Every structure is written in C-alpha cells, then in structure tokens.
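Reviewer 2 asked us to include a model.

Predict the structure of this chain.
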Amino acid sequence: MIWLWWLIPGLLVASGALMLVERSGARTTLFLPFKGDVKRETRFLAQWGQFVCTAICTTLVLQLDPSRANKGRMVPTVVAVMLASAASNLIKRLVGRVRPGRPGAGQFLGPSWKHANYRESFPSSHTACAAALSAGLAWIYPQAAATFWTLAVACGLLRYLMDAHWPSDVLGGFALGYGCAGICWWFFVILHPYW
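Predicted model (structure tokens):
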C-alpha cells in the first residue's frame, strides 16, 4: 500500500481555493448537453464506486483471485466505500450547499436532516465512493492502479461536466474517499492483519 500523505491536504486546499473562485462569480460550470450514446456511456462511467459497481468488483475478486489475502482485502475496500458514502451524506446534510444551475447556486444553507437533492452538492458522494473503491483496488492490484485511478478521475470529472457538482465538491469528495480508504486499510490491514 502506497499512502500519499500529501494528497488529502492538497485536495482540501485546492477545494477551498476553488470555493473562493466559485463564490467570486467566476463561471465554473459548463452546462454541456450530452446526447445519445455519449450520454449513456458517460452516465455509466459516472457510477464507478456506487453500489452495483462495488458489488460487481467484489464478486469478480472473489471469483477470479485465488489469493485469500486479496479476497480478505475486499472487506476494507467495501467498508471504505460505505464509509465514504455515509460520511459524504452526513456532510451534505450539515453544510447544505446548493448545486449548480439551481436558485441560490453555490450557497451554503446550513444543516437540514431532510433530504433535498438541490442542496446536497458538497462533497460529491459519487467521487468519494469512486476514490475509495479505486484506492482499495489499486492497493490490492498495484499493476492495475492506473486503470482504477483513471476510473475515479473520470467519475469525478463527469460529475462536474454533467453539472451535478462544483469543481470544489469533486475535489472534496476525492479527499474524503481517499481518507476513508486509508482509515479502513489502516484498521483492517495494518492494525488487524489476521481479522
């Protein structure tokens, strides 16, 4: 496992800087129309790290990898995805940032425990889950790390390109997902290697 200690603070600083740019009124959203096959393919890639994708990856590792160690390491990976999802949804409810293209776009409305999609922009939970899944899979299979990280980055970029999130939301989600993966791997693989 290669832990990039500087990645989380770097992403959080970049996310904060982008929030300042976004709040200044600079145009940071694109409003691109996706149609036909392009729309379908991009929606598929934007789901990397979500429930079905994580379940498919877990099933493939369990079926194809004879190593007991790698099968066991899917547990911290799946737990990291679940933790990233729960943490991002908690933060979304606490900060209440309005999504792009909505009235009051970019504003932080504060806490609300009631679900309201328009005010649940920060952080991107799709990106957080994608980063958590990619981190775990890259640590299990370092030879395929570039592919896994490309999928996570594609997911985050598509969340931005589809105007679902601000750029800062995507970077914040990436930091959260990577952090959740690191915590889960530290707990399951380093602290309790024989669980």
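The two ends are 18 Å apart (CA to CA). The helical segments are 7-23, 36-45, 51-64, 68-95, 125-140, 145-161, 167-191. We have added this to the supplementary material.
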